[in-house]
Amino acid sequence: MGIQATVVFTDLHGSTAVFESLGNARATERVTHITNWIAGQCVTFGGRVVKTLGDGVLALFQDGESAVKAVVELQRLHSKAMVTSDVAMPIRVGVASGEVEIVDGDCYGDAVNVSSRLCDLAGPSQIWANASSLNSVSESAGVTFRMLGPINIRGRAEPCTVYQIEWREEAASDFLTMQGEIDPVYANGSADPLGREIELGCLGLTKRFKSFELPISIGRVRAVDFMVNDPRVSRTHARLEWRNGSVVLVDVSSYGSWVRFSGAKGSDLLLRRDECVLHGEGEMALGGSFADPSVPTVSFRIL
User: Is the peptide bond between 296 and the residue preceding it cis, with omega within 30 degrees of 0?
Assistant: First the structure.
């Protein structure tokens, strides 16, 4: 018989590189120490650790509120610890609520699959959660929920609405507030906004890239895949990656990127060495905000 639970999946990003730099013995000790610490933190917040998976942890919580509190505190404590560490292994987290089946001490079900996929899709130090896990959870000081839209999850027939949980106290600003609504064409799940092509446009130049052509680079020099000739744009300013059915914009610039989704209500999204999922259509401002009418902008459209 199934039970209702909130599933948390965590993963240490960059652990492979740590094994290369530290060697097997030291890296295993370091990864094991952090993984055990993550498991202990989950238990502290009322979670049940189902299993550890090398550099990952699978845990169950009775409700979304305790799960969110646990993963937010995980990220905050770990980010402080990384400041003084000789190696950086940020945590990626996926959270999903639903019915799970417990069999021989392990757990199965749609929520387990979704939380695992969201963990895979999340960037370093990010928390991605499905809508049902946040139904009874309220935003608080320093914790906000930013809608990423309906995202196609591999192995699942219907897309699910996904949020990114912003956990940095200093990041709870207007820049990190996205729309409260999504394009109506996607609202009922009748269309997948994360299709197999992305169209970019700037100053009369339009180019389309298929999913299998990603990653591609955007920047100021001719060597990139989509060039924007402006001194505010870094030589390589951003990348577009394809992750399990999602188009992800990764900012790698000096001055940041701003993202505005068409029809969005709310402030623009600022990325500084950060990333977000692109869906529907909108614009990217490179090296300056949309408040500057001269800022170089690139339109995007997911086809």
Answer: no
pTM of the model as a whole: 0.63
Nearest to 162 by CA among 132, 192, 123, 136: 132
**Which phi and psi angles does 153 have, rounded to 5°?**
-105, 125
- Cite the DSSP H helix spans in the chain: 15-22, 24-44, 64-83, 110-121, 184-187
Dist. CA 294–CA 237, nearest whole Å: 17
Amino acid at 291: A
Domain ranges (residues) in the chain: 3-172, 197-302
Q: What is the dihedral of CA 3, 135, 110, 12, to 10 degrees?
A: -110
DSSP letters spanning 224-263: SSEE---TTS-SS-EEEEEETTEEEEEE--SS-EEEEETT
Determine the Cα–Cα distance for residues 218 and 239; give it in Å rounded to an integer.
6
pLDDT band at 244 (very low <50, low <70, confident <90, very high): low
Order of strands across the sheet with 257-261? 205-210, 197-202, 297-302, 281-286, 257-261, 269-271
CATH numeric code, 3-172: 3.30.70.1230
Q: How far apart (Å, rounded) are the C-alpha atoms in residues 273 and 250?
A: 7
CATH label, 197-302, candidates 3.60.10.10, 2.60.200.20, 2.40.110.10, 2.80.10.50: 2.60.200.20
The half-sphere exposure of 38 on its side-chain side, counting CA atoms within 13 A, is 31
What is the end-to-end Cα distance of the chain in Å, rounded? 41
Any idea how long the chain is? 303
What are 105-143's pLDDT values in tens digits?
889 999 999 999 898 888 788 899 999 999 989 988 889
Query: CB neighbours of 82 closer than 8 A, spacing ≥ 6?
Result: 88, 89, 90
